[in-house]
Amino acid sequence: MKLFRNFALLPLLALLGGCNAIVLNPAGDVAIQQRDLVIISTVLMLFIVIPVMALIVFFAWRYRQSNTSVPYDPDWDHSTHLELVIWAAPLLIIICLGAITWMATHLLDPFRPLGRTAPGQAVAHEVKPLKVEVVALDWKWLFIYPDYGIATVNQMAAPVDQPIHFRISASSVMNAFYVPALAGMIYAMPGMQTQLNAVINKPGDFKGFSANYSGDGFSKMRFDFLARSEADFAKWVSDIKATGGNLGRTEYLELEKPSEGVAVRKYASVDQQLFQLIVNLCVQPGKMCMHEMAAIDAKGGLGLAGVNLVQSIEYDKSARRGSAPILAKTYVASVCTTDAPMGADMMDVQVTPVSSTPLLGAGLPKPAATFQSFAPRPSNS
């Protein structure tokens, strides 16, 4: 029977041989520190778990009913030494776990710039991180390189040992940006921007995916992460510039539509404000951006004249956001001026100080007055 059991376990071992434990064998310094934190925390907890499990077996065997050689003391109720062990050991473990977790939480803060690229290799002040803007689409990933003016879909690359600064957002529903070899997962949410600082230390091809369910095409929402030398990364960029297309507002609105299993796409030029437009939910020309709306609200709003500042939605992500035939869906139109015919510029709004003078909608046409009359409810008598 023992020989039979050993042979029965062989198929299971063969299946385990195909596993890729990338979380425990990452290629980036941040992921390595996170792995070490998991291992240290697990070992500390095993200091309690293993003795408790062993003592359960020991007491069950030693004080079994058939063992009459051990003393029987039904009136026993307290032991100071045992109480000290029971309470002191877990307390020390909790203190150690709390201290380690607190330090790691601050040192591995995704918003915190990297202080090192590897153990003993500090980041020099003159080293600039690679900037990558990430957008989670349905169901694909868009990567924009603002310093190079290029973009890719379902593929990104980065030089080995160079800090990477990610800015992450989404187009519709929440996803989670996750490259196990690089760092922990970071949520991508529409209308919001989060950050991640990381570094890759080994060349190779790694996998990234969404770690948060987001609909029908979630299982195919994967991308390739290419870790390359500086020379190979420069060649990768030059190849995109030579063969890629253009990614502007119109192309993005088409790309944004839900699709599954999308092949790698490359863009040699990108609208410089595209990522900020995506974050502010105003890629569609003429739509008011969230930062414009916030600035107007901070100044007092547009008054009653602002109720007419709406337009009908022509494209609503393939009617995925509840477009109904009963009520016409609208959005707030951008406030245009002679200086900004396409609406307030992204950078201008961020640096313009907020005025304390309230806006009353001066210069805008007043909304047409509408009157409704209600007939009296008929009596049941």
- The geometry reads as elongated
Terminal Cα separation, in Å? 89 Å
**H and E order:** HHHEEEEEEEEEEEEHEHEHHEEH
Count every beta strand, where a strand is a DSSP E run of 2 or more residues: 16
Biggest beta sheet summary: 7 strands, mixed
Strand order of the largest sheet: 10-7-3-4-5-14-13
Task: Compute the average pLDDT.
Answer: 81
Strand content bin: 15-25%
Low-pLDDT stretches: 318-324, 346-354, 370-374
Question: Helical region count?
Answer: 8
How much helix, percentage-wise, in residues? Answer: 25-40%
Structural class: alpha+beta
Radius of gyration: 30 Å
Summarize the structure.
This protein has 381 residues and is an alpha+beta fold. The protein is built from 8 helices and 16 strands. Helix 2 runs antiparallel to helix 3 (80-107).
How would you summarize the topology of this molecule?
Blueprint: H1 2-17, H2 29-62, H3 80-107, E1 116-118, E2 121-122, E3 130-137, E4 140-145, E5 150-153, E6 155-159, E7 164-170, E8 175-178, E9 186-188, E10 194-198, E11 204-210, E12 222-228, H4 230-243, E13 245-247, H5 249-255, E14 265-270, H6 274-279, H7 290-298, E15 310-312, E16 330-332, H8 346-351
Parallel strand pairs: 3-7, 6-12, 13-14
Antiparallel strand pairs: 1-2, 3-4, 4-5, 5-14, 7-10, 8-9, 8-11, 11-12, 15-16
